[in-house]
Amino acid sequence: MFFRTKNIKLSPIKQMELLASKIPDVVSLAQGIPSFDTPEIIKKAALKALNRGVVAKYSLTYGLPELRETIEQKLAEDGMHYDFEKEIIVTAGSIEAITATLLTVIQPPEAKSHRVKNEVILFSPSYASYPEAIKAAGGRPVFANLIEENNWQIDFKNLIKKINSRTAAIIICNPNNPTGAIFPKDDLLKIAEAAWKKKIFIICDEVYKDFVYDSTAMGAPDVQKLKFFSLAQIPELRKIIIRVFSLSKVYAMTGWRIGFLHSDEENVSEIVKIHDSLVTCAPVISQYAAIGALDFADKEVGTFRTKYQERRDLICRHLDDLPNVFSYQKPSGSYFVFPKILKLKNSLRFALNLLERTRVAVVPGIAFGPSGEGHIRMSFGRSEKDINEAMKRIKDYFVSVDGSKGKASNL
Amino acid sequence: MFFRTKNIKLSPIKQMELLASKIPDVVSLAQGIPSFDTPEIIKKAALKALNRGVVAKYSLTYGLPELRETIEQKLAEDGMHYDFEKEIIVTAGSIEAITATLLTVIQPPEAKSHRVKNEVILFSPSYASYPEAIKAAGGRPVFANLIEENNWQIDFKNLIKKINSRTAAIIICNPNNPTGAIFPKDDLLKIAEAAWKKKIFIICDEVYKDFVYDSTAMGAPDVQKLKFFSLAQIPELRKIIIRVFSLSKVYAMTGWRIGFLHSDEENVSEIVKIHDSLVTCAPVISQYAAIGALDFADKEVGTFRTKYQERRDLICRHLDDLPNVFSYQKPSGSYFVFPKILKLKNSLRFALNLLERTRVAVVPGIAFGPSGEGHIRMSFGRSEKDINEAMKRIKDYFVSVDGSKGKASNL
Fold it and tell me: Do B208 and B62 lie in a common domain?
């Protein structure tokens, strides 16, 4: 039989989780899962909806009006102005929003038009599911390399070279997964200007925007007061900006599959058709939980942020103990660190060996694009205990095979 | 900007619901939503999972192993043997399963291979979301007409004529939405034989299989004892059969977005890649609810079935009172009736006028394929009160404009 999917991989992140799930006593720093349970206040909102008997039925395809109003308000607080009736779709997490958008804007060669717009530019390294989602939607991923030496920032010249008449969209994950880098406003505006001229969509994936640790990273003295910059804040750009958000990370709700996208009505009225074909509507109990999260869980998010910052510092201290095994750029946001494996290139082999010999799961860097090769992604969304245990096992292993400070080439 | 979706419609069912949601005092027989709340025993399973703190995190992409084991058992009871580890995917409802499958098996013309397999055969009339899902996946819907006079049964010769080298799949909805017809085993086997020879997938959508009312419809004397026939029961066919099921209808769980698909491992290992790109995993709280449903809610399903049969008889009696407005085939399964509008062809105009003048929402038949034109779909999944009120309004309207028995031409 024929399968269109032969060139698509099941995300290596999920593959590592599958492998890890079969190993007893494994410690996983692989998938980006918060260690926390969903806050009580959110669970209570879900529970109340359950008891009120309002979760049994489909919501409207766009999502519950009450939730969309809440989202409209929340966005307005962040300087983004979108009409809940026509410009916001509640989705089954951000990946559904991204894939629905790609299925809307990618024009494969078979269309009768002379125009082909099947290329989607994404950074290397960035989120492993993008290239697979692009291929699933009939598109071609085009990687623009980030500069590791410059803390994984954008190589603007390299990016511009990748734009051509076939470019349908650019995906920007900010803060970036897996590097934890934050892209500055000026760079984003430069990209937007280039995209605007060529009528190219920008998909802004900002699911880690609430986990930003260094005020300096965004050129401001006080991160708590700092407003995260999003291209969706610029009204003149709304025709090309499709912003995607998920409650998964910020509210420890990955299992609930709830997120949203927003853009100009013209775009949203097209994307909603695909959204309808993918899931009809987002899960309704999760929509009620989301209302609780957006309305009442700011304090919990603050707690998570503080914890993740401590964990970032913790994992970095551990990495500092292995200077002959890894080098790394300190992440400014997200809950990932993306160390370079010294003296070894094959990240998949490294990750598989690490899993086998230390029962620690990490994601091979190659999963995040060609320039991710030679790195691994470690999540510090996991608990301090897991981080300490994982790093202890790694250290013990390298010390045992190589004396004091180990070498990656032993794996 | 370019949108691939310009030729896709937001499902007319959802459009009618959107219109209806803006009209006060509307009675909707449009969307296929059970009137019942999700049974307590299922809600309790969700609640317990919530309290145990196990719903926050992603499940494996395939779904919770515990749920897949439950599904494997349940399928085995119905004579379908599939391995929970590799042959079952838990999905965000059946539409996600269908679209993921289509995105896997449709080969659009741009592929470098000489083979193009972009046609998907579906019955007319059948579920309105199929053609839109096919188009979303880059395919071309090819309609095979059902025979209204023969209680909407399959026109086998017509179907065979539609098969060619470009055919990727055939979708069979059984019991069929919107007609409520059940296709007999012999016909299904004939289709499977033809599909097998040409290496064509059959997607079996059986979400209404538990709502079957007439034992005679399947040639057996006692419907309670009758095993519903599925092509997925034939082991020799497993390489081409992809069976889709949803808990939405049978357990009154449309809002939970939970269902599953099963097939041979070769197929499932490809579809799971797309599933991962669409939703990562099905909502986890819904997966726990599903375990409760499959394990403990058989009794409730029996109650629903009895109620729906009473409602079918009720709505049919109402339709019998309007012999100059509608003719209809009595449905043997599902919770839809698909009356023909006498003396009027334009079903969209009829439905819109009906909504405006009587505040009753139904779905125009054209939504279900070309041969659905001239009909409307009414759901008797809604409550007796709604059915009575809707039919009273319709009767009052036709009587007021046309004396005793009304004519459709007045709308």
Answer: yes
pLDDT at A145: 97
Answer whether residue B404 is part of any domain. no
User: What is the chain A residue with the closest CA to B381?
Assistant: A57
Q: How many separate domains does chain B show?
A: 2
Q: So what's the ipTM on this one?
A: 0.94
Whether residues A98 and A139 share a domain: the answer is: yes
Is residue B182 situated within a structural domain? yes
Name every chain A residue with its beta carbon within 8 A of the beta carbon of B277. 8, 95, 99, 129, 132-133, 136
CA distance to A208, A230, A292, A302, per residue, from A298 (Å): 15, 19, 10, 6
- Minimum Cα–Cα distance from B259: chain A residue: A279
What is the number of other CB atoms lying within 10 angstroms of the CB of residue B231?
23
**Which band of pLDDT confidence, cut at 50, 70 and 90, is reported for residue B171?**
very high
pLDDT tens per residue, range B305-316: 999 999 999 999
**Pick from B268, B296, B324: which residue ends a domain?**
B296
DSSP state string for B51-65? HHT-SSS---TT--H
Of B36, B93, B273, the CB nearest to A5: B273
Contact B278 A110 (CB under 8 A): no
Q: Are residues A69 and A17 in the same domain?
A: no
**Residue B367 domain boundaries:** 8-38+299-398
Assigned domain for B403 exists = no
Same domain (yes/no): A180, A204: yes
Burial class (CB in 10 A: 0-12, 13-18, 19+), A293: buried
Q: What is the pLDDT of residue A15?
A: 82
CB pairs < 8 Å spanning A and B: 259
Alpha carbon distance B231, B293 (integer Å) = 24
Mutation site for B-interface testing, chosen from A278, A281, A382, A383 by largest number of B Cβ within 10 Å: A278
Residue B59 falls inside a structural domain: yes
CB contact under 8 A, B270 and A3: yes
Average confidence (pLDDT) over B63-69: 98
Of B347, B51, B7, B174, residue with least CA distance to A112: B7
Q: Looking at residues A34-57, what average pLDDT do you find?
A: 97
Identify which of A6, A8, A50 has the shortest CB distance to residue B43: A50
Point out the residue among A31, A55, A283 whose CB comes nearest to the CB of B38.
Answer: A55
**CB nearest A37 (choices: B36, B56, B104):** B56
